Amino acid sequence: MASKTLGQILRRERSKVDQSMLNSLLAIFDDEKFMKEMVDTHAPDEGDVDVQSLFLLVDNALRGTATIADSVINPKGTQGSGGPAFKPPKEGFNPPLAAINEVACEITCKALDTKNVRETMISIFHELSSYSWVNKAVITLSSLALFYGDFWRLAQIQPSDKLAESLAILKGLPAITKPSDVQKIQVYGVLNEMIKTTLSMTECIVEFEHDSKDVPELSTAIDIPSSVYQIIISVLACSIQFTSLISLIDDYKGKDLPTFVRKVNMIHHTIKRHYEDYKQKKEEIREYQRLQRLFNAPTDNVELIKALVYIKDDPQPLYIGSKKITDKVESLRRKNVMLLISDLKLTSHDLSILIKIYSERKFHEERYEIVWIPIIEQEGDDVNNQFKNLQSQMPWYSVRYSTLINKVAIKIIKEKWHYRQETIVTVLGPQGRVSNKNAMSMIRLWGWDAFPFTESVGASLWSKPSISWFELLLTDMVIPKINEAIKSRKYILLYGAEDNKAIHEIEEPVKKIIEDGVPIAAYNVTKNQLFWSRLESLMLSKLQTKADVHEPLMQDILCLYTNFKKDGGFAVLTRGSQVVINDSIIDVTKVLSQYETTWKKQVNGNEKTFDAAFKEHRDRVFVLPRCHHFYIPNMVGYIPEDVKCPVCPRMMKNIVKFECCHGAH
User: Fold this and answer.
1) Nearest-angstrom CA–CA distance, 77 and 71
2) Which of 447, 446, 429, 427 is nearest to 437 (CA)?
3) How far is 19 from 252, CA to CA, in rounded Å?
4) At 643, is the pLDDT very low, low, confident or very high (cuts 50, 70, 90)?
5) 3-state helix, strand, coil in the chain (%, to 5)
6) Range of 19-23, 378-382, 600-604, 633-637 with top mean pLDDT
7) Res. 124: pLDDT tops 90
8) How far apart are CA 535 and CA 441, in angstroms?
9) How far apart, in whole angstroms, are the C-alpha atoms of residue 24 and residue 119?
10) ∠ CA(432), CA(434), CA(435), 5° rounding?
11) Whole-angstrom Cα distance, residue 412 to residue 305?
C-alpha cells in the first residue's frame, strides 16, 4: 500500500513537472531576448537538404497519422471520411537521418530528463545551426512525425499480428485505444489537432520560401526566423505532452493544454494571414506586370478595356445608359473610345459638357464612344446608390458595377495617366493607343471645338495668335455677363483669398474707387468652384503642350495660381481682356489703399488712365527685388525638371510640398 502511494506521488510530481515545462514553453514564445539568442546560432553552410522533398515525407506521415488518431479518438465522427492522398516521394531523396534522430532524442527523452525547455531549445538550434531556416522547422517536425507516426501505426494492427500487438502494449497503446477515462481521450484529440495546426504552419513557410524566390520584393512578407522559432516551440510542446501521456497512467486531464493550444492557434492564424497576404500581393505583382506590358504596347482597345475590369466576374460588364441594357466589351472594337475616369464627385458642369459632345452627330459618325470608369474606394449602400444615380444620368457606356474595376488597373491608371481623384478623359484609338492621356482640360475650355480631343488638337488651339488666357478662363457660365464687360473694355478686378481679412481689406478701397467714378467690375472668386476648375484646366492643357514656363501666357496663369496658393491670395486687374496687373492680393491692396492719398489726383486730373496710374504707383512702391516662385499642382501630370528663372539667369529650386485642401478649390 505504501509503495502504491509513493508511486502515485511520483507520478503526480512528474505531471507537475511536465506542466511546468508547458508553462515555460508558453513563456518563451514571447521572449524576444531568448529568440534573438536562438536566431544568432544560425550559420548555414553551402550544402542543404531538399526541403520540399523532406516536407512531402513529413506531410504524408503526419496527415496519415492524424487520420488514424482521429479514427481511434472519435470513431463515429470519422466514419466514411477516408484517408489522405499520399504524394509519392522524390526518387533518390535521402533525408538527413542523423539530424532527425538527434532532434527526436532531444524533444522526447532528453527533454523530459532535463526538464529545462530552454536547454532543449538551445540544443535543437545548435544541432540544426548549419541548416536553412525552413529546414530547421521541417527537420524538427520530422522528428515528431517519426515517433508519433510509429506509435499510431500500431493502432491498425491485425489480431493475428502478435509481434505488433506486443509492441503496441509496450508503447502504451491500449491506454489510448481502450481508454476508461473520456476526459483523457479528449486530451489526445486536442493534442492531435495541435499537431495538425503545427503541420499547417510549417506548410505555409515551406510554400512561401519556394514560391517567393522569383519575387524578391516580397521575401520579407513572412518573418521566417521568428516563425521557425515558434514552430519548434510548438513541436517541442506536442512531443513533451504526447510522451507524458503515453508514459503516465494517472489522473492528469491536460488542464493547461487548451491555453497552449490557443497560443499556437493565434500564431498559426498570423502566419496563415501573412501567407495569404503574400499570395495576394504576388498575384497583384503578376497582374501589374501583365497590365504594364499591355498598356505599353496595346494591340487592340478591347484588350485594354478588358484589362480594366474583372471580365471573369461578368461577361457583359458594360451598361448602355441610353438603351438601359448590358453589353460586351467587344462592342467597342474598332472604335475610338473616350474613357471617362472619375470618382462620385463628377461635377454636373463636366457631365453637361460631355453630354453635349455625346449628342453631336459627328461624334457617332466618326465612331466615337464614351465609357465611364468609376474609381470608387468606399463601399456601402449609400455609395452604391450614389453610383447608380450618377450612372442613370449618363447616356453612354459605363461599367455595370463599380466593384468590377480591376484594383491593379487603378494603380496603372494613376501611374500612367496621372489620375489624382480629379476627373480625367483618356482618349484611345481603335488599336488601344493613347492619343491623349487627359482631354478633360481641353473639353472644359473648348467643348466640341476641341474634337477629336487629341494632344495635337490641343497644341493647335493654343497656337492661335489671338488667344487670351483671360477670355478662356472667364465665361458667362463662370461669371454672368462677364463677356459683356470684356467686350466693352471695362476695368475688371478679380480677387480671391482664403483669409476673410484679406478680402475685406481689398474690398474697402475698391468700393471707394468705384464711388469715385472709376468703372471697375469687381468679383470675389474665392468660392467659385467653376473658376478654379477652369484655371487648373488652363494650366494642365497648356503644360500638356510642353509649353515653356517662361512664356508670358504661361507665367500669367502660374502667377495667378501661385499667388492664391502660396502668397495669401491673388488679384488681377484687366481692361477688357488685357491684363494690367497680376499680383498677390496683399500687394494690390497696398497700392489700391494709397489711391486716395497718393495717386488719385493723376486719374482725376486726366493725366493718366486708371490702369496706367496704378502700374506707375505700383512700380514705385515695390522697387526691391523679390523671390520669384510659382506653384504647379501635381495633378497636371507634367512637371518640368529644370526651370530657369524668368527674372534672373539662375536656375530655380524645385521644392516638393504635400497639401490637402479638404475638397476646396
Assistant:
1) 8
2) 427
3) 10
4) low
5) 60, 10, 30
6) 378-382
7) yes
8) 9
9) 11
10) 125
11) 13
